[in-house]
Amino acid sequence: MRNNTTDTEEDSENFWKVAADNSVFWDAYVSTRPNYSASFYKEIYDHHATHSSSWTLAHDVGCGAGQVAAELSSRFEKVVASDNNDTHLSVAQRRLSQQDLAPSRISFTHTMGEDLHKHHTAGSVDLIAAAEAMVLMDAPSALTSFATMLKPGGTLATWFYGRPTFSDPTLFADAQPLLDQIMVRNWAKVIQGGGPKRKAGFKRAADGMASWLDYVDFNPHIWKEVHRIKWNSQATLPFFGQEACGFEIDAVSSVKAGIERVEEREDWEWWRNDWDLGELKRYFSVLFPGFKEAVGEGDKEINRLYKELSELMGGERQVRQFTWPAVLVMATKT
Questions:
Q1: Claim: this prediction has a pTM higher than 0.90
Q2: What is the pLDDT of residues 91-108, one digit of tens each?
Q3: Which residues of 92-125 are buried (b: 16+ CB within 10 A; e: fewer)?
Q4: CA nearest 329: which of 208, 162, 160?
Q5: Residues 47 and 69: beta-carbon distance below 8 Å
């Protein structure tokens, strides 16, 4: 199967990119992602309210299609949506323009998260949200940029969710390994064989996911009230690991015991999705922009795994419940 990138794009750390504003892809992408619940955002807003009374400006870093920016606009006077990929910004702008949101309340910045401070006034931001984005960035540089932008008492909230996971204990034991094999086979086709820069990008992301964001190192002279919450940690957070990557994965912890607050929660209803096999296939078809080109629709091994999965699920149209492993890290600027 051919890879989804050109030689120039392939040898780049920026591996997650949709080449065009494809509304069909993005509509499917958004509909097959977890729906961040009100209780989830409440964790973030409550943290912020504890340390700040200012709700003027929020940033959605790595905004993708703009779902988080839309939510932030319900609480903050103004929102900035930023992304390293201009096509993603076009998607976000198109989707957000369809909502009842005054154009003056939202703006867009095309930049890396690590360079965001070069485009915005220091000490001007109340809250920065980075969903699924931290593992794609150089964390120390990103934290420096975010700390520069935030007001004292401002909030950084970064989170990551992983693989869809069967909620039923029997299916978790019997069917989840098949789903995981499909995940590995898809990613292996995309990851292996790239250039050194592309490999470095996947390596950084893989290490970060394996660490459940514990690698993000908060300097206590700059950050305080660090709070890490992990949901369903018995499930697999990384989308790809050593088996798919072909190189060693290093999980790192920079958690400061006695200073940072760490919670683990088990909730099999968390961000619940009810899917049949067709919807699960749809999820995989848009999980990564290059899957279809890299793997194609005729991969015999994947088709065999889907057949086994269908039998365990009780048939192609049998709806089953899925949950998501996730981690949220919040920190306050000193």
A1: yes
A2: 999 999 998 888 899 999
A3: bbebbeeeeeeeeebebbebbbbebbeebeeeeb
A4: 160
A5: no
